[in-house]
Specification:
Shape: globular
Strand order of the largest sheet: 1-10-9-7-8
Structural class: alpha/beta
Radius of gyration: 21 Å
Number of helices: 14
CATH architecture of the largest domain: 3-Layer(aba) Sandwich
Number of domains: 2
CATH class of the largest domain: Alpha Beta
Order of helices and strands: EHHHHEHEEHEHEHHHEHEEHEHH
CATH topology of the largest domain: Rossmann fold
């Protein structure tokens, strides 16, 4: 099967192309399938990531109005679900550039005890109404620690205005998980403007160009025989997906997991390499007898050091020896930002097509709506 620009499949898996040619157009290639199962067009919102990246980057410029913050050693980002995933990608960039700042993702109602010391708190909520984020924001204000916000038109935005906290105002009326350009790029731009993170201003345009090319190749109108995201979704259908990667793509692996959960209504997990070779590989014993087969997708950045590359190879060899299907994806890009965006968009579209294969509306989240608050 062919690869898309920015993505290379490096491990062969069973090829469905014969089945497609023998039985006519695959259902993923029939426009009516999407009209029936995706009436709100969330798939198009995922594919709008290139323009959203540009908008999110520009929105973050508002933090240039603030005085640079020099008395902090860590950034504590409070955000849940789709509002919080951008933090993991930001951390991938700050680690890649070896910035002095530590970026911590926090998903609790209360702040940790150390938040009052040398910490910038960033509250992120696309809706503005996330209960956990609002509670932590209120505590940060009461403690008097440096705080900023990135929020939609909800309680968080109002609370920021009432507390004279600088806030980037997101205008987005859709799912937080489809707002990655804001939760990732606006957040990173905030840290850059505050003098806490390496400047990536020159990286944004080439990253968007690459991302646009990839988006055009992953769209529903591109047939299964040419669409890598559709192919991978077909491989994962009916299996237990586990997404694994190395830093700086750990956030992308986490993104894949959560998108498969929310969009495809499918159980999924993510893991990190090299830690995976110390425990998870032993858990595959007799995997062939599981009710549903596990399927491991390994994400490898094109700038991968020798230790990490060797770990990936050894892990996949062990999986194959134990009859666990696996796929190695080389995630390429013009820079670190581009790789994070390409890998994330690929996961978004894999989860989207997996939802279609499972006859699920990818924008519907009944269980989440019953359980979460705000």
């Amino acid at each position: 099967m062919p690869s898309s620009k920015g993505i290379e499949r490096s491990v062969n898996v069973p090829d469905n192309e014969t089945m497609i040619l023998e039985n006519g157009p695959h259902r993923l290639d029939i426009p009516a399938t999407y009209a029936d199962l995706d009436p709100t067009n969330i798939g198009r919102r995922f594919l709008s990531l290139p323009s959203q990246v540009e908008a999110g980057w520009e929105l973050g410029a508002v933090f240039g109005d603030a005085d640079p913050i020099t008395q902090v050693s860590r950034v504590l980002v409070v955000g849940m679900g789709g509002s919080g995933i951008g933090t993991e990608l930001v951390r991938g960039l700050t680690d890649h550039h070896r910035d002095d700042i530590e970026v911590v993702s926090w998903r609790q109602y209360e702040l940790p005890p150390w938040a009052a010391r040398d910490t910038l708190v960033v509250a992120v909520s696309v809706s503005g109404n996330t209960a956990e984020t609002n509670a932590a924001f209120q505590e940060a204000c009461e403690l008097g620690v440096p705080t900023i916000a990135i929020s939609g038109a909800g309680r968080l935005r109002a609370a920021a205005a009432g507390s004279s906290v600088l806030c980037a105002e997101i205008e987005w009326d859709h799912e937080p998980r489809a707002a990655l350009g804001y939760t990732f790029l606006t957040l990173y731009r905030a840290l850059q403007e505050l003098g806490l993170a390496h400047s990536i201003s020159d990286d944004v345009a080439p990253a968007v160009t690459e991302l646009s090319d990839v988006a055009s190749q992953l769209a529903p109108e591109i047939s299964v025989s040419e669409n890598v995201a559709k192919q991978i979704a077909m491989e994962l259908d009916g299996r237990y997906p586990l997404i694994a990667s190395v830093q700086p793509l750990l956030g992308v692996a986490a993104r894949w997991k959560s998108q498969i959960n929310e969009n495809a209504d499918c159980w999924a997990a993510w893991d990190q390499i090299p830690e995976m070779k110390h425990n998870t590989v032993q858990g595959i014993f007799q995997a062939a007898n599981w009710p549903a087969q596990p399927y491991v997708v390994a994400l490898k950045p094109d700038e991968c050091d020798d230790f990490a590359a060797e770990d990936i190879d050894r892990i996949l060899e062990e999986l194959s020896a134990n009859h666990v299907q696996n796929l190695l994806l080389d995630i390429n890009g013009p820079n670190a930002l581009g790789r994070l965006l390409v890998g994330s968009l690929l996961g978004d579209m894999v989860s989207y097509y997996l939802a279609i294969l499972r006859d699920r509306n990818p924008s519907s989240t009944e269980s989440l709506n019953r359980v979460k608050i705000g």
